[in-house]
Amino acid sequence: MIESGKHFEYIFGAYGLSAFLIAALCVWVVFSYKKQESRLATLKAMGLKRRSERTPIKPE
Amino acid sequence: MTESKPQEPTPQDLGFFSRIAHPGYFLEWSRYFIWPLVGITTILMAYGLYLAFFNSPADYQQGETVRIMYVHVPSAWLSQFCYAVMAIAAIGSLVWRHPLADVSAKAAAPLGATFTAIALITGALWGAPTWGTFWEWDGRMTSTLIMLFIYMGIIALWRTFEDQVRAGRIIAVITLVGAINVPIIKFSVDWWNTLHQPASVFRLDGPTMPPSILLPLFVMFFAFSFLFLLLHFISMRTEILRRRARAIERQYAQQLRTQKP
C-alpha cells in the first residue's frame, strides 16, 4: 500500500502526465477514425464510390 | 501511381498470409478484434494499477518511487517495440511493396512517439528524487531522446508527401537507417558508464527483483502492449479509410477536370 508524503508529488506527477498523454492519444486515435468514416460516408452520399465498388461496364 | 496498376487479385485468390494482409480483408477481420482488445486492455490496466498502488511494497532503496517504474518500464519497452514494428514494416514495403506495410508503419509512428515521451517524462520524475537530477546526458537517456526526435521526424515526413505510396518508400529507407538506434538504446547501459541501471528484468540469470515487484511490472507490461495493439489496429483502419477517401476524391477531381470544356 502506498504511503503518502514520500515523494508523493513525483509519483502522482508521473502517473498523471502518463494518464493525460495516453488519454489524449486514445481520443485522437478514435477521433481520426470517426473523421475518416464520416468522410467516406459523405462521399458515398454524393454517389461517389471506389473503382472496385462500381458496377463494371460491360465491354461492347 | 496506384491507379495505373492492373486489377488487383481479390482476397479469395490469395494465400493465407496475403489474404490477412490485404487492406480490404484487414478491415474485415480486424473489426472483430477491437472490442475484445478494449476489454483485455481495460482489465489488465485496472489490475495493474491496483497492484501498483495497493498491492505492492515500497522498494528498500527507491522507496515509494519504485511505483513510477510500473509506467516507465512498459512505455520504454513500447518505444523500442514500436520502432521494431516500423522497421519490419519498412522491410515489407521495400521488399514486397506491400500496401499494408506502409499503413502499419505510418499508424505506428505517433504511438511510438507518445510512449517514448511517456518513458522520458516518467524517467525524469523518477530520477529527480532518486538520483537528484531530472536529466543527465548519459547513453540511455540521450539515445532515447534521439529516438523521440526520429519518431517526430518520421511523423513530419509522412505529412510532407502528397503521394503516400512514394512517401512510404522514402520513409521506409529512413526508418531502417534510424533502426540503428534501437540496439544503441538497448546496449547503451552496457557499453557506457551510464547513470541508468543495466537490464534487470530480461537477464540470463533471471530478474533481479522479488515477485511482489515483478508481478505489477508484468501486468502493466501486458496492459501497455495490448493498448498498443488496440491503438495500432484502429490507426491502421483509419489510414486505410483515409487512403480510400483520398482515392475517391482524386478520381472525382479528375472526372470534373475532363468534363470541363
From TrEMBL, chain A:
InterPro entries reported for this sequence: Haem_export_protD_CcmD
Main location group: membrane
One Gene Ontology CC term in the entry: plasma membrane
Keyword Iron: no
Keyword presence, Transmembrane: yes
Topology in membrane: Single-pass membrane protein
Regions that span the bilayer: 12-31
Domain of life from the UniProt record: Bacteria
Keyword tags: Cell inner membrane, Cell membrane, Cytochrome c-type biogenesis, Membrane, Transmembrane, Transmembrane helix, Transport
GO biological process, one term: cytochrome complex assembly
Compartments (UniProt record): Cell inner membrane
Functional summary from the UniProt entry: Required for the export of heme to the periplasm for the biogenesis of c-type cytochromes.
Family membership noted in the UniProt record: Belongs to the CcmD/CycX/HelD family.
Protein name: Heme exporter protein D
Native species: Maritalea mobilis
UniProtKB/TrEMBL annotation, chain B:
Annotated GO biological process: cytochrome complex assembly
Molecular functions (GO terms): heme binding; heme transmembrane transporter activity
Membrane topology (UniProt): Multi-pass membrane protein
Domain Cytochrome c assembly protein: 37-196
GO CC list: plasma membrane
Predominant localisation class: membrane
Location in or out of the cell: Cell inner membrane; Membrane
Keyword terms of this UniProt record: Cell inner membrane, Cell membrane, Cytochrome c-type biogenesis, Membrane, Transmembrane, Transmembrane helix, Transport
Pfam families registered for this protein in UniProt: Cytochrom_C_asm
Keyword Transferase (UniProt): no
Record field: transmembrane: 32-54, 74-96, 108-128, 140-158, 170-193, 213-234
Similarity section: Belongs to the CcmC/CycZ/HelC family.
Role this protein plays: Required for the export of heme to the periplasm for the biogenesis of c-type cytochromes.
Annotated protein name in UniProt: Heme exporter protein C
Species: Maritalea mobilis
Gene that encodes it: ccmC
